[in-house]
Amino acid sequence: MIVELGHYALILAFAIALVQTVVPLVGAHKGWAEWMAAANPMATAQFVLVAFAFGALTWAFVTSDFSVQLVVNHSHTLKPMIYKISGVWGNHEGSLLLWVLTLTLFGACAAWFGANLPATLQARVLGVQSSIAAAFMAFTIFTSNPFERTAFAPFDGRDLNPLLQDPGLAFHPPFLYLGYVGLSMAFSFAVAALIEGRIDGAWGRWVRPWTLAAWVFLTLGIALGSYWAYYELGWGGFWFWDPVENASLIPWLFATALLHSAIVVEKRETLKAWTVLLAILGFGFSLLGTFIVRSGLLTSVHAFATDPDRGIWLLAIFAGFMSVALILFALRGAALEAKGVFATISRETALVLNNVLLAVSGFVVFVGTMWPLVAEMVFGRVLSVGPPFFNAAFTPFFVALAIILPVGAVLSWKRGNVWKAARGMWGIGVLALAVGALVWVMQTGGSMLAPMGVVLGIWVVLGALADLWMRSGRGAITGRLRRMARLPRADWGKATAHAGLGVVIFAIATMLGWQSEDIRVAREGQSFEHGAYTLTLEEVRRVQGPNYTSTMGFVTVTRNGRHVADLRPERRIYPAAGMPTTEAGIDYGFTRDVYVTLGDPQEGGGWALRSYIRPFATWLWAGSLMMALGGLLSLSDRRYRIAAGARAGSAPARAAPSPAE
């Protein structure tokens, strides 16, 4: 009965979404306050109903209700509870319901926290957001019903994909969806402003918190997915330029560009057309990523579905919303006229360069991801675009971005002095180059990748700290430190996020530049050297898990005779799914990871054993967390949460000073 109630709640939410798509937009056009006001309770009702539907599906998974076809296909009675819950969204139908839940959550938040928006703008934002929710509810109800019953309920289910039975994958999709779907708010603000015909500094300020929240969640989602790939897939890597990985990276790049571009709109009322276009494209690439994951056109270890028929629906949703938005964008050219002017050397120019580099790098990843499909469809050629292309095409843009970032952040608005800004940064540049040269000399050969990463990482991290120091004014050190501590949280958030990017650059370069790999056949009791460590395969044992059987290796790691770690690499078999997985044994360290995976038994005896030494691997995810923390610090600044000096119904011409710059 609970399942049927959840189904009915989703249908009722769909009906409300259709009404909310029309009523507020008509009310805003006609100036009917009652019709505009109706959007708020309808947005709340949508969220409550979809939350109930999602709760009903979760209940079916938790109680192993095998009368529901989705539970049969993606659960099992012996599965641990955390994976019964994550099984709700570990499939196509359930993940779509999570997508809809997130859409309605953001719509409800716009109703709850949008009191400072002009009434017409809020009504239009809620109307556009509801139209997106209605489209995905229709897709869920008519093509991907998660509540479908089965005629004959089995005693046990077929189990969740074993690759998804992992804590990282339990939390990765919700964070990723909060990022993907959060960009729908930037899209809704852009389309609502185009309908209204007014885009000014206040609009730039209003759209930034929503974009920043989506960016934080997307950063966390990508980091969790990368960490899962690192320790779960058994390849020892953190990024493989997989199509689904790229599908999340592209919106992140455009969201990052949008965050910085909105600053220029707020401060100078220029770059308005570009900022609105970024808001449209950012969500457009989120929709396209959803299509890639679910259409089956591109294969990936991360993909949910391989049903081209349902992929056509997603393509239609993408084409419909993008067409309407871009037509409005073309028709409202006059409203996007820039008002502010700025010199060639200025912070505005630095932010423009930032945007160009991010957008072009995003398009490069998009072309590389889609080109094999285009080549096969148009030219009849089967091509493969792999890491060598992406590394060669993508890296130069991020190197340029890292070089520009510290100096651009301290340039003055409107008209800057690059030499004045450089005076405060030259010491950092010299230090970064000196450390990089020392690293190059000490590494005794090898590529320049690691030394370059060290230089860029130090440059970006210390540049972020120098930005804070320069904002503290002049005077004694103690006084400057006190003033620096009292800087707005948004300033600290920006510095933390930029420093996190520097740490990520450093970690990626050193990990790829200095990693070492050893592949061998090892017998039980045999020891071998890998770098500074001695690894001993003590034994291999069969272990029974809750819903799997494991072949577990017991590996001892020592250094100079001193015990370092005991590792437990595994090969698991899940009988219900009939699928093997690899579980790496990892000793995490501050400056390196020792990483071991167990392979198949060999004919002549012994086991295939692969080991890696990964320098500064942990720093990669620490830097990612710093970036997300920077975003949260900025969001916690009160000035980020208040509209630009206006109450509902007003239309301010200028925005208040930005807290983040």
Question: Could you describe the 3D structure shown?
Answer:
This protein has 661 residues and is of the alpha+beta class. It has 3 domains: 1-155; 166-408, no CATH class; 516-617, no CATH class. Helices cover 62% and strands 11% of the residues. It has 20 helices and 10 strands.
Throw out a few tags for this protein.
4-stranded antiparallel β-sheet, 661 residues, 3 domains, disordered C terminus, single chain, alpha+beta
Uncertain ranges: 643-661
Rounded to the nearest angstrom, the radius of gyration is: 26 Å
Question: Shape, please?
Answer: globular
The N- and C-terminal alpha carbons lie at a distance of 54 Å
Biggest sheet: strands, sense, closure?
6 strands, antiparallel
The string of secondary-structure elements, in order, is HHHHHHHHHHHHHHHHHHHEEEEEEEEEEH
| Estimated share of beta-strand residues | 5-15%
Average residue-wise pLDDT: 87
Number of helical elements? 20
Structural class by sheet pairing and helices: alpha+beta
Number of E-state strands:
10
Write a brief caption for the model.
The protein has 661 residues and is an alpha+beta fold.
Q: What's the structural blueprint in terms of helices and strands?
A:
Elements: H1 2-30, H2 33-37, H3 39-62, H4 69-74, H5 81-86, H6 92-112, H7 119-143, H8 167-196, H9 201-232, H10 243-268, H11 272-295, H12 308-331, H13 347-379, H14 387-410, H15 418-423, H16 426-442, H17 449-471, H18 477-485, H19 489-514, E1 516-522, E2 526-530, E3 533-544, E4 549-559, E5 562-567, E6 570-574, E7 579-583, E8 585-588, E9 592-601, E10 607-615, H20 617-636
Helix pairs in contact: 1-3, 1-7, 3-6, 6-7, 6-8, 7-8, 7-12, 8-9, 8-10, 8-11, 9-10, 9-20, 10-11, 10-13, 11-12, 13-14, 14-17, 16-17, 17-19, 19-20
